[in-house]
Specification:
By secondary structure, this protein is of the alpha+beta class. The chain is built from 18 helices and 13 strands. The strands form three sheets. The protein has a five-stranded antiparallel beta sheet with strand order 12-11-10-9-13. The chain has a four-stranded antiparallel beta sheet with strand order 1-8-3-6, covered by helices on one side.
């Protein structure tokens, strides 16, 4: 939502929300001239209003694919994206899509493209929409346009989402769930088992005035939408739809209405704050104050950069800083100070304990026989072999198990571990305080605002899930040395590692490996899975693959390639 970041666009974004009573986001697109294809054929989840502000851009908009040409695993609102290839040839020859519009937008022109309608763009200056040649070819032809996106399908404001809510609320099994996948309600049987008429109505957005703040209009919309989704569901599968009481249908509609109004209100607040920030900035000196070209030329970029940095520092006035700080209540400042005080005292106590034990160790050593006990001068330098044998025997006798454990090699690391754990305590469970949650938290993020950080177990070094490439310390004959995980065999719960010197060891159990870096803790959430891409760990995706000798960059590239292959094999997601 560019309007939330750029105050100059916030007013237009807010006006779009107020005029339609729909959540609206604004995007900005800059495209060089003479691009034969600036955006390949694709569809979007949003109804898009395009406003051309500079240059020229050719738009070709097609009708959706015909009924008999649907792809079961393709999302009607995301055609031509991810692994779904879509070309102009596909649209015109394979899917029988009709070219509805072929036009060139110039500065000041406006175009509306409905969600799900394939379109492609170009800035090739040699052809206009009618096919006539043009001679315009200069820097001013760089195309700049805004899109105002009305995000009905993005925020579940459609009949297919409402129908799903009612089935879930009534705990009724939906036969339409027997689809190839389970993640996308716009794919699967919705593409194969429904007539064109029913499918179009089911995927349609809720009525334009559904989120109207007018009470009379809103109540009429609730009854109208409830009746429509009930009728649609009986047409799709009357047996299951008849199991859902009318009260459940209406309750689901009101729940979606409340959710939609909450989303809309968040968008409005977001733009209002951006507008207010713009007013503040307008009344204050800009960061470029004094940055005119009178005394600094392009031939002296170093001096220009220095003045630019100085200008930024000067622009951060005390008023601006206070405006940011004023958002934080006094009790939060004091709580943070006390938390840091506790942390500092804990670190200081760990250091004291570490040195006290070292002093105690010195006293032990002073009272114990040295490793040279019995090594008097009865063996001379003329018999170095016998001297060396007695020296080694003396060391072995003196190095008892207790003495070994007291060596700094084993004694000191436990204090470093305590320091790491203390740092972790400072970070953990330190999310937003009550009343300070992000207003966007819980909207499309899988959880409510202010979710606490999940607790890290005390034995995380030997229990936390490992990934390919993790830096660890591995057990090599009773001592732990730096290594890297190169292979994970999940079926046997064993790991292969490569040590810092290049040696490898296979089949280590988890308790023989210490994870070095403190894991990144995620906020508690009901949505998504772990791993780099939200779908498991790198170990899951590279199970059985030996990465010995590979760099982190090579492992990441292999992981990305393997992930793409898995996604392709899975097919489409959820149908309903």
């Amino acid at each position: 939502a560019l309007g939330a970041h750029v105050p100059q666009l916030a007013s237009a974004s807010l006006a779009a929300c107020d005029a339609t009573d729909l959540p609206c986001a604004c995007n900005l697109y800059v495209t060089a001239a003479n691009m034969r294809t600036s955006a390949p054929p694709h569809t979007d989840r949003q109804d898009v209003c395009v406003v051309q502000s500079q240059g020229r851009k050719r738009w070709r908009v097609y009708s959706p694919p015909r009924d008999q040409q649907r792809k079961p695993n393709a999302d009607v609102f995301a055609r031509g994206k991810m692994d779904d290839h879509l070309s102009v040839y596909d649209l015109e020859e394979r899917y029988g899509c009709e070219l509805l519009l072929d036009t060139v937008l110039e500065a000041g022109d406006v175009l509306f493209v409905p969600a799900g309608f394939p379109h492609t763009t170009s800035t090739d200056s040699g052809t206009s929409g009618s096919g006539t040649a043009t001679t315009r070819n200069n820097d001013e032809d760089t195309s700049i346009h805004l899109t105002f996106n009305f995000d009905t399908h993005v925020w579940e404001l459609d009949y297919v989402s409402l129908r799903m809510m009612a089935y879930i609320r009534a705990n009724v099994y939906d036969v339409m769930l027997d689809s190839p996948g389970a993640d996308n309600k716009y794919t699967g049987l919705v593409n194969t088992e429904l007539s064109q008429n029913i499918r179009t109505r089911l995927l349609d957005a809720l009525p334009f005035d559904f989120l109207s703040l007018d009470n009379d209009t809103s109540e009429k919309m609730v009854q109208q939408v409830t009746q429509t989704v009930m009728e649609l569901s009986h047409e799709i599968h009357p047996e299951s739809a008849s199991l859902i009481p009318p009260a459940i249908w209406e309750e689901s509609t009101r729940r979606l209405l409340q959710y939609g109004n909450d989303i809309l209100e968040i968008h409005r607040d977001m733009y209002l704050i951006a507008i207010e920030e713009g007013q503040f900035r307008h009344s204050e000196p800009t960061i470029f104050a004094g940055m005119d070209d009178t005394d600094v030329t392009e031939t002296d970029p170093g001096a220009y950069l220095e003045r630019y940095e100085t200008s930024i520092v000067k622009s951060m006035t005390q008023a601006r800083i206070q405006r940011m700080a004023s958002l934080i209540p006094p009790e939060i400042w004091e709580e943070s100070t006390r938390r840091l005080l506790q942390y500092g005292n804990d670190i200081l106590e760990i250091h004291r304990d570490m040195y006290l034990i070292a002093i105690e160790e010195g006293q032990f050593r002073h009272s114990e026989p040295t490793i040279f006990a019995g090594m008097e001068d009865d063996v001379t330098e003329t018999d170095p072999g016998a001297y060396l044998e007695r020296y080694e025997t003396s060391i072995v006798k003196s190095m008892t198990q207790a003495r070994i454990q007291r060596m700094s090699l084993f004694r000191v690391p436990m204090f470093y571990d305590k320091v790491d754990e203390t740092k972790l305590i400072l970070q953990s469970n330190w999310g937003p305080a009550p009343g300070m949650e992000d207003p966007d938290g819980g909207v499309g993020s899988g959880g409510g605002g202010g979710a606490e950080t999940q607790a890290l177990p005390a034995d995380w070094k030997t229990s936390w899930p490992l990934n390919i490439g993790d830096e660890v310390e591995a057990d090599l004959g009773g001592a732990f040395f730096e290594a890297r995980v190169t292979r994970i065999q999940n079926d046997q719960d064993t790991y292969d590692v490569q040590f810092f010197d290049g040696d490898v060891m296979d089949g280590l159990s988890r308790d023989m490996i210490l994870l070095k870096k403190i894991p990144v803790l995620e906020a508690a959430s009901t949505g998504g899975g772990g791993g780099e891409n939200g779908g498991g760990t790198a170990g899951d995706d590279l199970e059985g693959i030996d990465t010995t000798g590979m760099t982190k960059k090579e492992i990441k590239r292999l992981l990305k390639k393997n992930k793409k292959k898995q996604t392709k094999n899975k097919g489409a997601g959820r149908g309903f």
